[in-house]
Write a sequence for this structure.
């Protein structure tokens, strides 16, 4: 029998830090193998700035590459303006298509 | 050339000390300060005077944003005035938080003479005492560091595992207010202070350097005062404990009563929360202050110096060093009758 | 080498060049080819200065050893007298010329002096929180530059290839805590180059570069930066490392904030490379008039001349006036030589 | 003559009957898996004039390959000689065998191997009367000449005017080899028979005579016919699984298309028919600019069709510019662009995309709604020019997507996101109809095409701004000075080839510039197309460079285009200035006070100061 655990009226907070040793970046690695130019992203934010669909592409791609997490992409118009303004010429449209395809493969309902 | 912090040594007075106590140490580890005075007087033959009129430094109130700075400054000016009146110049501060506060205030006085003059007026108006400043201001762990070899000479026990003969693996945790606010006021600067490690090495122990060595123990005032926030305080302690776990430490030694309290108490809380423990083979890690450790080394009776008030039972440590103790007397009063055991259902004693 | 017709000496006076790094070599070479006699002082036993510390130079990864012969002065060699292994601690102006002193009194005189004393790398031990000199696997870019030519074994740990390598930018640059407010300009591109070199040596390794601002300013630098990202998969994380400490397996636990994610970040690396900045080294040559230590020598008019303020006849070239890369130092050396030549011949 | 059988005919017969069975099965499959209304179209069309027209087109295309001729005469001759030549051999062979055997209904193999059964009249007479042998030899020679060209194309394609040829898969190569050997084998077989009997015409007779000089041909008659029959049978068995399935299926496609059947996502039958009808001839490879810009990458339609037929859709499918050049060049007339878009999966991207637009100040509606398009916001020069043109023409107009948060949905559709494109269309359709405007002008050909093809906007005319400007010029609502510069016009794929708008921009250029140096070639893609998300920047640049080089051969002073995307792509690499047609117009507008007093058409309308986007 385990002893009655006393309660103290608060929860231990989880740290907000990103532990890079334990993050699974396979989704991002596979995608960047397809769209190699993604790795050259400077996080300058021109894509998010020009996006008529209001998709925060910069932070979305950063979260994907850093945490392996993916937020939704369903307001993207695939108009390609982000590709036009990207100073590194990253094929953003193709990246978006690959992300959604890979996400379906992984089956994660994100 | 710039002096490397590591090599920085500070100037510590030799004798004639004026001692100011710590609220937390008195309350949570009542035997410690009496022990410190006893060691200085009877073991090291130094004069150490404790003025009955001296008060708290109001640090907890100030750092929690309740007590205004000028009030704290006046209280501390009163302490110095008391010291002056009794003819002492060298002050020993028992609490590291106070030590940080005293240093901060002296530095502010140095930067702003008008403020200093104003506080002198407040002191005069409130208490009629004359403003003064200490010639040498140190923390109690500095003293023990200074006389660590004299203590080692009189030591009855070494920080060595009695069975295996190997030095005990000791984690030294330095209170943030000791060396982080004013690195030049800590022995060895902010990153690798030697005030505790020096003692432990000279008493035969071995120091563990673990990644979260410099992380806060969790005693952030604003984090623990309000109950819902205590989760933050606890998460810091856990980060430290988890980081030191691979090294299987036998002991944690601290110089600030706050760190001592939290690293000690929170081990129990974490154990209750999710059953994890951080010492060797599933046990908890005893947490002692530098005074208490010096007392053990010098052969004081564990229960005499109040080690039974620690949350993590110290018996594991005493057995390792081979210090005899009477389990029955753990919860007996001066005249020997039992005053009742705390109902702690600990799995990993 | 075709033996060039030796240059006739055009002036009876002599110029002292202190320092034989790229700037010193360029200055001495130019003066000699202008027909001016040169006393060339260098504290190390050989010329070339810091070039000997480098393996491959950014951005095209030319071998530093190949650059040295290029800088050897071609013509007018006979006009140069080298004093290697000699340190000059002080120079003083006298009506007759400039006296050079080294600890034990004067050891030379000259009519004009070109200071090309270069720089020192920032002593990373002053950033104690990074644990340089305390943890074995925390090294500086200078150490790494010496380990790279040795090959894989230098970077293998306990016989295994490193799995992760971290680079810390701005160590001892743009850092008021160590009294250095300026940017050393060259550590960013050095970090990029070395990250590529490491990832070429260990393709499977993950390489992280922690930066505040990526200042790849020169020709071909930005392209190298992109190549590092795209072809070598080097992860550039925007956030300054706050501290590093060693874990039980002697790997380095790095703490930083990913400021673009706005979240603190921890990662364990097998090697942590500190990209150390440049600090002035003219502390060895104390100038009684010019602003003294802890600063680079201030030219009279930084925009237009190499003449040192308040010291007529004394010129400064190369990194002793501020962080420069090799082409800039060489150009500055030649400029100082010309101005010294003009100073000598104009006064006649 | 009496026993018209020999075992050697068996391989041919087996092969041929397999082919016929496969073909009948396929036709039935194609027909029953048509969409409902397509099926009705075919049934009604069958007994109408269309069948006759289809027959004529079959002869023109399947046999004579006239479309290939127009594209490349040597290639045309090659295809014609093989197809038409073989057809005539079969036809005359039948007539000859029927003429001599006296009965119409005989086993199929008889006419094919007739020469074996009846060596025919002796050598010189065979040529004159009735001369069947002569005609057979003539058409055999025609086929053999075509064969010569085919071999030349395979190994020295440049001489045949083909920069690149198709890289065939093993099955196709095997079938190709079999096809190439059939006709020489026939020649040898017939010459053996003729040589042994001293018959045959100018080709088979003379070759037979030649053989007889060296050895006795009669001993090798049978083996040569066996080889011929086996090759035919082998080819027929291979045919359904190779590109040569095109031979029987193209006529079926021509008939179905003539009856009005068109490719649509639902029609599995017609799609399969179209896929089968592709002959992997490689003409689309030459038409595709990516063949130059990304040599070696099998993105062209022939590769795409082949992989879809083998139902493995490669990721390369996203590397097609969807510019339509291959569709324009395809001799079989396949609807390659719809085929490409239908195979792109709908991944649900943009399912919750919302767009916003401005519909005119409350109350009074606007006559003209200007929809710049999302790309146009990246070249504000176009917006500024259009607003000055609108104002100059005194139009009452409203700038719908002034805040740049609007999109027509076509980029989503091009990438296969059909649902998302549909709900954006819904939003815009009701916005436009609510606006009360009767004219919708857009600066982006991509928007124009989807507005024109898919939006239903009752009572609203949709114009690309080049059409609108031409109308203004024609009704001289605006006047422009003519400059001494020469210009060249790049026709954006979605505007020219995609929507058939070529003349209007050229008329404007005639009014604006001294000379229009536009080369008379199929419209070139600028490389910036939205159709190919998978194409990287370097390849796009290469396409753009190729296009600019070709367009500026005549050394014009300025490059005019009519699409914000083309303008942005070209201006990155062109040495000469790149202007949108609207910018060129606005640049040379004659200001009103310099204009003679214009009579007002639509009553008095006051000028609106409009907040430029």
């Amino acid at each position: 029998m385990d002893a009655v655990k006393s309660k103290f009226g608060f929860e231990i907070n989880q740290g907000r830090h990103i532990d890079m040793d334990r993050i699974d970046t396979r989704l991002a690695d596979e995608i960047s193998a397809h769209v190699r130019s993604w790795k050259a992203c400077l996080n300058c934010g021109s894509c998010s700035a020009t996006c008529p669909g209001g998709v925060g592409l910069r932070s979305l791609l950063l979260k994907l590459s850093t945490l392996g997490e993916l937020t939704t992409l369903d307001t993207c118009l695939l108009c390609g303006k982000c590709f036009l303004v990207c100073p590194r010429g990253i094929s953003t449209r193709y990246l978006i298509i690959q992300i959604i395809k890979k996400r379906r493969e992984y089956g994660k309902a994100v | 050339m710039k002096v490397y912090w590591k090599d920085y040594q500070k100037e510590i007075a030799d004798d004639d000390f004026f001692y100011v106590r710590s609220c937390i140490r008195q309350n949570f580890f009542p035997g410690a300060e009496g022990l410190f005075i006893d060691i200085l007087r009877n073991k090291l033959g130094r004069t150490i005077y404790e003025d009955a009129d001296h008060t708290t430094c109001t640090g907890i109130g100030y750092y929690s944003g309740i007590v205004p700075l000028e009030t704290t400054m006046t209280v501390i000016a009163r302490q110095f005035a008391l010291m002056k009146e009794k003819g002492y110049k060298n002050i020993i501060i028992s609490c590291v938080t106070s030590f940080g506060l005293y240093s901060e205030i002296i530095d502010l006085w140095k930067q702003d003479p008008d403020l200093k003059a104003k506080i002198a007026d407040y002191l005069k108006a409130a208490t009629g005492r004359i403003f003064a400043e200490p010639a040498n201001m140190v923390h109690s762990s500095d003293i023990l560091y200074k006389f660590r070899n004299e203590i080692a000479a009189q030591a009855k026990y070494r920080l060595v595992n009695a069975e295996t003969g190997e030095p005990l693996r000791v984690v030294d945790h330095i209170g943030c207010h000791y060396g982080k606010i004013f690195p030049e006021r800590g022995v060895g600067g902010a990153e690798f202070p030697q005030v505790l490690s020096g003692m432990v090495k000279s008493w035969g122990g071995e120091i563990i350097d673990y990644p979260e060595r410099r992380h806060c123990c969790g005693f952030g005032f604003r984090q623990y005062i309000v109950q819902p926030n205590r989760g933050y305080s606890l998460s810091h302690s856990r980060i430290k404990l988890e980081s030191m776990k691979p090294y299987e430490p036998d002991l944690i030694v601290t110089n600030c009563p706050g760190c001592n309290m939290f690293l000690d108490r929170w081990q129990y809380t974490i154990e209750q929360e999710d059953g994890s423990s951080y010492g060797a083979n599933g046990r908890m890690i005893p947490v002692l202050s530098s005074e208490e450790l010096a007392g053990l080394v010098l052969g004081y009776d564990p229960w005499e110096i109040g080690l039974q008030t620690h949350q993590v039972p110290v018996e594991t440590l005493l057995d390792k060093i081979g210090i005899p103790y009477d389990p029955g007397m753990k919860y007996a009063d001066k005249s020997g009758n039992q005053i009742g055991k705390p109902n702690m259902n600990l799995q990993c004693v | 080498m075709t033996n060039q017709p030796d240059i006739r000496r055009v002036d009876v006076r002599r110029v002292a060049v202190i320092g034989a790094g790229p700037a010193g070599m360029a200055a001495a070479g130019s003066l000699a080819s202008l027909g001016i006699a040169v006393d060339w002082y260098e504290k190390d036993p050989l010329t070339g200065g810091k070039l000997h510390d480098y393996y491959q130079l950014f951005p095209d990864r030319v071998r530093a050893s190949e650059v040295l012969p290029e800088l050897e002065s071609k013509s007018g060699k006979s006009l140069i007298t080298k004093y290697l292994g000699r340190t000059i601690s002080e120079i003083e102006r006298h009506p007759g010329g400039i006296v050079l002193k080294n600890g034990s009194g004067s050891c030379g005189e000259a009519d004009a002096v070109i200071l090309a004393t270069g720089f020192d790398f920032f002593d990373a031990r002053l950033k104690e929180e990074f644990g340089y000199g305390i943890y074995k696997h925390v090294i500086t870019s200078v150490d790494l530059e010496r380990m790279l030519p040795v090959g894989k074994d230098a970077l293998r740990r306990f016989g295994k290839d490193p799995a992760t390598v971290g680079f810390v930018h701005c160590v001892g640059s743009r850092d008021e805590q160590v009294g250095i407010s300026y940017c050393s300009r060259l550590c960013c591109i050095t970090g990029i180059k070395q990250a590529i070199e490491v990832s070429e040596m260990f393709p499977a390794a993950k390489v992280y570069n922690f930066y505040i601002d990526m200042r790849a300013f020169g020709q071909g630098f930005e392209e190298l930066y992109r190549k590092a990202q795209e072809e070598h998969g080097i992860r550039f994380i925007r956030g300054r490392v706050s501290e590093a400490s060693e874990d039980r397996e002697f790997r380095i636990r790095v703490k930083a904030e990913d400021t673009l994610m706005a979240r603190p970040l921890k990662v364990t690396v097998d090697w942590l490379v500190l990209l150390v900045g440049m600090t002035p080294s003219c502390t060895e040559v104390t100038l009684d008039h010019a602003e003294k230590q802890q600063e680079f020598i201030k030219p009279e008019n930084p925009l237009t001349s190499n003449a040192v303020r308040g010291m007529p006849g004394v010129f400064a070239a190369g990194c002793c006036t501020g962080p420069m890369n090799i082409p800039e130092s060489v150009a500055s050396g030649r400029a100082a030589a010309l101005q010294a030549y003009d100073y000598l011949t104009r006064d006649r | 003559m009496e026993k018209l059988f020999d075992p050697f005919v068996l391989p041919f017969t087996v092969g041929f009957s397999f082919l016929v069975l496969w073909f009948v099965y396929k036709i039935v499959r194609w027909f029953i898996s048509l969409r409902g209304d397509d099926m009705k179209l075919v049934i009604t069309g069958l007994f109408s004039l269309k069948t006759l027209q289809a027959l004529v087109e079959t002869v023109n295309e399947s046999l004579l390959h006239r479309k290939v001729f127009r594209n490349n005469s040597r290639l045309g001759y090659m295809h014609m000689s093989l197809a038409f030549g073989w057809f005539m051999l079969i036809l005359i062979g039948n007539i000859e065998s029927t003429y001599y055997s006296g009965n119409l209904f005989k086993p199929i193999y008889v006419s094919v191997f007739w020469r074996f059964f009846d060596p025919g009249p002796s050598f010189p007479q065979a040529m004159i009367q009735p001369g069947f042998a002569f005609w057979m030899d003539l058409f055999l020679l025609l086929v053999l000449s075509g064969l010569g060209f085919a071999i030349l194309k395979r190994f020295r394609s440049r001489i045949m005017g083909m920069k690149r040829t198709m890289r065939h898969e093993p099955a196709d190569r095997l079938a190709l080899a079999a096809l190439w050997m059939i006709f020489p084998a026939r020649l040898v077989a017939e010459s053996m028979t003729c040589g042994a009997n001293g018959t045959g015409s100018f080709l088979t007779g003379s070759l037979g005579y030649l053989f007889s000089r060296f050895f006795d041909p009669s001993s090798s008659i049978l083996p040569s016919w066996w080889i011929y029959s086996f090759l035919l049978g082998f080819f027929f068995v291979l045919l359904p699984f190779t590109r040569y399935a095109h031979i029987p299926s193209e006529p079926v496609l021509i008939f179905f298309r003539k009856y009005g059947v068109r490719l649509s996502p639902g029609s599995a039958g017609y799609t399969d028919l179209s896929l089968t009808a592709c002959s992997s001839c490689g003409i689309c490879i030459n038409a595709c600019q990516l063949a130059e810009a990304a040599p070696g990458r099998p993105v062209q339609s022939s590769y795409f069709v082949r992989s879809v037929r083998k139902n493995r859709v490669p990721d390369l499918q996203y590397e097609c510019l969807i510019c339509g050049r291959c569709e324009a060049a395809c001799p079989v007339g396949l609807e390659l662009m719809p085929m490409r878009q239908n195979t792109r999966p709908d991944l649900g991207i943009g399912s919750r995309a919302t767009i916003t637009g401005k519909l005119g100040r409350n109350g009074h509606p606007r006559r003209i709604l200007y929809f710049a398009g999302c790309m146009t916001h990246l070249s504000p020069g176009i917006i500024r020019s259009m607003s000055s043109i609108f104002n100059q023409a005194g139009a009452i107009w409203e700038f719908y997507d002034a805040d740049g948060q609007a999109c027509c949905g076509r980029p989503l559709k091009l990438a296969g996101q059909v649902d998302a494109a549909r709900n954006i269309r819904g939003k815009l359709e009701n916005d436009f109809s609510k606006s009360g405007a009767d004219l919708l002008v857009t600066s982006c050909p991509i928007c124009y095409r989807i507005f024109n093809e898919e939006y239903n906007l009752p009572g609203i005319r949709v114009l690309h701004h080049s059409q609108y400007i031409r109308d203004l010029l024609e009704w001289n609502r605006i006047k422009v000075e003519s400059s001494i510069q020469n210009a060249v016009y790049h026709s954006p794929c979605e505007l020219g080839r995609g929507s058939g708008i070529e003349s209007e921009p050229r008329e404007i250029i005639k009014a604006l510039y001294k000379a229009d140096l536009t080369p008379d070639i199929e419209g070139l893609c600028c490389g910036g197309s939205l159709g190919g998300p998978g194409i990287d920047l370097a390849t796009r640049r290469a396409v753009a460079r190729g296009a600019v080089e070709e367009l500026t051969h005549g050394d014009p002073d300025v490059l005019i285009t009519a699409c914000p995307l083309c303008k942005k792509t070209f201006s990155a690499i062109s040495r000469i200035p790149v202007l949108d047609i609207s910018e060129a117009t606005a640049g040379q507008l004659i200001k009103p006070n310099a204009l003679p007093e214009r009579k007002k058409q639509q009553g008095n309308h006051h000028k609106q100061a409009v907040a430029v986007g």
Notes: Residues 25-105 of chain A form a domain with the Fumarate Reductase Iron-sulfur Protein; Chain B, domain 2 fold (CATH 1.10.1060.10). The helical segments of chain A are 26-34, 46-50, 57-67, 81-85, 92-106. Chain A touches chain B at residues 2-15 (CB under 8 Å). Chain A has one domain: 25-105.
